[in-house]
Write a structure and sequence with these properties.
Length: 153
């Protein structure tokens, strides 16, 4: 499967924002973690009442952009870390109600992240994953909703 285009990504972001605004996507955000995503879901969660978000970004330029956005938005409840998501998941003891995962495609990230998530999830937590393939139910995970925008599942 090919990498999603910028157009695919923009269509997906638009659909997610519509879902958030219409209430179709309405998880309980207390607290929330944003892995690999450019941070907009973390900031969106804060704007909707989340007490805290943790945004993990390994890329230094992207991390700096998040820090700049945090200042502009006065998002003092956003904890932004310039770190490796896998390392963070193995080291944190914090529990999260919502986790957004949007890793680089074609690099096996989903298989690396999913086993580590169980240790950071609060009871009844929700995980939102963007992937280049459809996520399937298994003994550990139940898919509640799924969809596709362009090449993104």
């Amino acid at each position: 499967m090919s990498q999603p285009t910028v157009r695919d990504e923009m269509q997906l972001l638009h659909k997610l924002r519509l879902g958030l605004h219409s209430g179709a996507i309405g998880p309980h955000y207390q607290p929330e973690i944003d892995l690999h995503r450019p941070g907009w879901m973390g900031f969106e969660a804060l704007s909707r009442g989340a007490k805290q978000t943790v945004l993990i970004e390994k890329s230094r330029p992207a991390y700096q952009a998040l820090m700049d956005n945090q200042l502009q938005l006065k998002a003092t409840s956003a904890k932004i870390l310039n770190a490796d998501a896998l390392q963070f998941l193995t080291q944190t003891s914090q529990k999260f109600d919502v986790v957004f995962v949007d890793p680089p495609y074609q690099q096996g990230w989903i298989d690396k992240v999913l086993p580590l998530l169980k240790s950071v999830l609060a009871e009844d937590a929700l995980v939102y994953i963007e992937a280049e393939f459809a996520i399937k139910d298994d003994a550990e995970w139940q898919v509640l909703k799924h969809g596709k925008a362009g090449n993104v599942f």
